[in-house]
Structures are given as structure tokens and as C-alpha cells.
Amino acid sequence: MKSAQLLPSENLVFLLREIYDKYGYSRYKMNKFEEYDLYAKNKDFLISDSVITFTDTNGKLLALKPDVTLSIVKNTKDSGKNVQKLYYNENVYRVSKGTHSFKEITQVGLEAIGDIDEYTILEVVSLAVKSLVSTGENCILEISHLGILSDVINYVGVPKGETRKVFHFIGEKNIHELIAFCDSLGLENRKIDLLANTAKIYGTAEEVLPWIRENLTGIADEKNIKTFENVINALNGGENGEIIRIDFSAVDDIRYYNGFVFKGFAEGIPQSVLSGGQYDALMKNMKRKSGAVGFAVYLDSFENALSVSDYDVDVLLLYSENSDISIVKKEAEKIIADGKSVLLQREKSDGIKYRTLLEEKDGEVICVENNA
What we know:
single chain, about 375 residues, alpha+beta, BirA Bifunctional Protein, domain 2, nine-stranded mixed sheet, 12 helices, 16 strands
């Protein structure tokens, strides 16, 4: 028998929703199905390009939603200088990172769509920090800026047709192959060195921002550098700023993303548990004028880290036909008031795992067994 306690991942969902509510984000609800064409045109934006499809009664090909962001972009409208702030708590259907098979996965995240400014970026990344810290795990948020990195790649002289390959090497932290590839293109050694050093950037704001200012001024767009400095400094000086790391190997597909990109990692989990960034390019691909920034928390990544308790219930309280039900009820309420769960039964079952076994006898509640 299972207790009425929520699983840790379910607790996390409610905690995240409470955070987003407090910052004025509205809940977005969507259908389970979307036209398959939406996902087919943007497969590279998805975590997995495997999509469950079926044919509707009218012959139209539909898909069980593998992603929420694409649906939000499709179903919202441009709104001038306003910013639509939405969060979601939806089940998506895709190949799980853990099992490599299709699963129904609860995904929580948020999107800000509209006239995106510095503050909006700061707010979204700050909420990503709060989301990571809420998991209770030791965590790090790695932040990059694709605009700055793209400017360096252009300065080095990488042909446009080869930039995706360069981004791939950077994302893999494969500096050796990055240098070898740039060398094969006949690029200048000093420029290759600058690109390699930029790709290797990793550290705190105090360690990295001075290097960016000294080495990339005049190469990267000044507005991008200034915005990056402002946001990073604000994050660094805020609550949980110690988990921020600047890491220019944190990249995503440049056909969809631009500007800030960030990934969250939790101790003991090999892949990112949170991912987000600015995706103005995706908005443009979908004929939208607005900018956008957001992130998703991948709860399936926590399935092992957020393990279920070894116990079904904190306290098993046994009573008999002759028990004083008033005493039994008061004892149960006292246990609950102490923040514990309690299951009342007339006899013990081998299928129930408990920390403490109590029994009411002759108007008195006694402790029979304590496994805590």
C-alpha cells in the first residue's frame, strides 16, 4: 500500500508553480495533440526527433505533443511592447533520456514572449536559478551568449557554411578538433587562438567578465557585451549567485537560439536538468515579430535523484474494535501536526513499510517498533 504523500518530483512541480505564480506568470494549458507538421518543421528544436503520430478521423496527421514551447509560439499572438509571461505544467510524450523509450513525462517551464528587454532576460534566468535550487540538489547554472560567440566566429573568418560545425566542436568542449578544423580552413593562428580561448571560457563572473571586456571589445557587439555584463552582475549579486558559471560551451542550435543560452546541472545527474535561452530565431521562423526567452525543467532527469522514500508511511497506528476512537483520532491528528504521515489500520500487513509502529491499547497509545 502506498501513502498519501506526494512523490518528490510531484512536490517539485507544485513548488515551481508557486514560484512562477508569485512572479505574475499565467498558467498555459494546451491540448494533448498538435498537427504533426508543427514538429516536422522544427525537429532540431526538439530534445528528441522521435514523435508519436496518428491519423485523425478527418485524415489529418496529428502528434502527441513532444514539446510545449512550439505550441505556445503557435498559439500566442504578437502584442507590441507588452510581454506575455506564461508557465506550463504539462505532460509531453517523447523518448526519455533515462530509458531511451517513449514515456509520458511531466515538464515544467516558462516562456516570456514579446518585447524582450534586459530585465525580462534577468527575470527569466533568475527564475531558472530558483527552479534549480528548489530541487534540493547541489546545482550549477551555466550561461553563454550566442551573439558574442557568433561575433567571434565571424571575426575569425569561419565561412557561413561551416559555423554549425564550429558550434558543434565548442558544445562538445573539443578544443583540439576546433583548432584543427579552423587550421584546415586556412584561418590566421592568432584568430584561431582567440576563438579557442573564448570557447574555453568557464568560471565565475569575477573570473570571466574582465577577460571578455579586455579581449572581445571591438570584436563582439558592444551592446551584447554590455547586456551580458549587466545580467551576469545582477545574477551574481543576487540570491544563489554562487551557482552561476559563465561557460561559452553552453550552446544550442543557432537556427533557433540567439543571445543568452543557459543549462542547469544537478549533482549526480550526467545530463542537463534545465535548459533555456532566447529563441528569437525560432519566432522568426514561425513568422512572429516578437522576441522570446524561456526554459524547461526536465523532471524525468530527476527520476533517480529524487528517489521515493523507503517507507510508505511515517507512522502505522493500529487500533482494535474496542479502541476509543476519540483517542485514536487525536493521536492521528497529533502525528500529522508534527509533519508526519500516518496510516490507521486494524491489523498490520506485510505490504506496508513504516518508520514507526504505534498501537492503541486500553486507552493508551504505545510505541511497538521504531525503524527511524
